[in-house]
Amino acid sequence: MTTDDFAERTLKVGVVGLGWAGQQHLAAFSALDGVDVVALAGMEADVLAELADTFQVPHAFATWQELLELEGLDAVSIAVPTFLHAPIAVAALERGLHVLSEKPLARNGAEGAAMVAAARQAGRVLDVVFNHRRRGDVRKLKEIIDGGGLGRPYYAKASWLRRRGIPTLGSWFTNPDLSGGGPLADIGVHVLDYALHLLGEPKVISVSASAYAELGPQGRGGDVNYLAAASEHKFEVEDFASAFIRLEGGVTLVLEAGWASYRDPADLMDFRVYGTDGGAELRAAQSQSISDAGLHVFTDGDGQNADYVAEVPEDGNHRAVVEDFVAAIRSGSENWGRHDGSVALTRALVIDACYLSAREQREVEL
Description:
It holds the Pfam family GFO_IDH_MocA_C3. It is a single chain. By secondary structure, the protein is of the alpha/beta class. Helices cover 34% and strands 25% of the residues. The chain is built from 13 helices and 16 strands. Strands 7, 8, 9, 10, 11, 12, 13, 14, 15 and 16 form a ten-stranded mixed β-sheet that branches. A six-stranded parallel β-sheet has the order 3-2-1-4-5-6, with helices on both faces. α5 (85-94) packs parallel to α6.
């Protein structure tokens, strides 16, 4: 396959996973010109048949192994529980396929490193779905910071907090062997990603973290169907975590990730940053109870406050991530090495260090 072939012909993609994330991938790929979703794989037979019919996908398989055997595939999209990311991605890369995987990269840094090594060995693209960095407010704040609007950032605080957001007890989310962790690995990795992205990808020097499992083991922190007595599975991950992260250049990042805590009922995702010439705060909430949602910038002009609310572009989310993935493939083999999953691996290694710090109650250097 030559670079010109990828640049000019229709890309044939397979999607593994039929849940919410997989359906986002499927819809995004199907909306692109020059891309055909030719195969789906998933265990839910009725959902598999329905999606294949709705999106006119010609091949439907019960297993990912069968999908990877299909001749003519160019790329595969992985939207399954985290413990399957590494085996599917490595197998796909070894077959010469480009890979787009849901976050986190893998259950841990070791698995993530194996994925990156496979991408480099195959000379193929490995991208990870960090869709929140494609939100309009994050993109606008990145533009402001990179343009010097805040001076030199030196302190940031980022969080994703829920009141009742524990996934179903007994699902793979609450089993560390399947998920790799609780909210720190699930939603905290999104916050870590866009925080480091906004700060310019500084090197992480050390972390000091704490993790708690206070509500989940009691059957609290989920919807009305979340009952500890309703499942034979234990709650084996944290439900809240925080980390103090030292970055190169003396910059500090404080991170919080919680599936459940006694707070405002709205999901809150925020980022606050202080710089030498200004500061900013973005807040995205799933409730009208937080009235100051948006991107607020705090700075001076002529010795007076010159604060403003920035106008932000439309959110990109999964659609933009899929577009970026396709563009990376079409950019040619000379550029594929820039998309080898190594950025996502840095996130996985920081998450590993946070869990180690929480277990041993000490600061961990990276």
